[in-house]
Amino acid sequence: MKQWSEIIKNLSLLTQLGLSIVTPLLLCLFVCLLLMKYAGAGGWVFIPGFFFGLGGAAVSAVKFAGLMDNLNKKQEKRSGRRRPKRGETFNEHF
User: Fold this and answer.
1) CA 58, CA 81: separation in Å to the nearest integer?
2) Crossing angle for the helix pair 2-38 and 46-79, nearest 10 degrees?
3) Where are the domains of the chain?
4) φ/ψ bin of 87: left (φ > 0), alpha (ψ from -120 to 50), beta (otherwise)
5) Of all residues in the chain, what percent carry a pLDDT higher than 90?
6) Which among 56, 32, 52 has a CA at the least distance from the CA of 43?
7) Helix or strand or coil: residue 57?
8) For residues 13 and 68, is the Cβ–Cβ distance under 8 A?
9) Residue 88's pLDDT band (boundaries 50, 70, 90)?
10) H/E run at residue 49
11) Digit-coded pLDDT (tens) for 14-36
12) Is 28 exposed, middle or buried (0-12, 13-18, 19+ CB in 10 A)?
């Protein structure tokens, strides 16, 4: 039963990462569409909108990676495992 909870947890984290990356890009492109339709802006508006969306997606991915790193550190602290220090080989980390 523990395996199923881990699978569902990892699947939900993967889904959250995907939504966190796609949402800023789609929102920026939607705002560009509204600007083009109602404000009379040209099609060139999509170019900066795309790059702003990618920037938002990158920021979101970096924050998600930091969140996952903190979560892993807390789990390692609870379980008593430690990460190998830099420069240690596989056999030296025990």
Assistant:
1) 31
2) 160
3) 20-79
4) left
5) 57
6) 32
7) helix
8) yes
9) low
10) helix 46-79
11) 999 999 999 999 999 999 999 99
12) buried
Residue the block writes with tokens 């039963």 = 1
Angle, alpha carbons 43-46-47 (nearest 5°): 110
Q: What is the pTM of this model?
A: 0.70
Kind plus residue range of the DSSP H or E element containing 30? helix 2-38
| Amino acid identity for residue 7 in this structure | I
CA 90 from chain centre, in angstroms, equals 29
Cα 30 from Cα 89, distance rounded (Å): 50
More confident residue, 75 or 85: 75
| Token pair in block for residue 39 | 């404000």
Q: How far apart are CA 21 and CA 50, in angstroms?
A: 13
Cβ neighbours for 56, distance < 8 A, ≥ 6 positions apart: 24, 25, 27, 28
What gap in Å lies between CA 7 and CA 85, rounded to an integer? 29
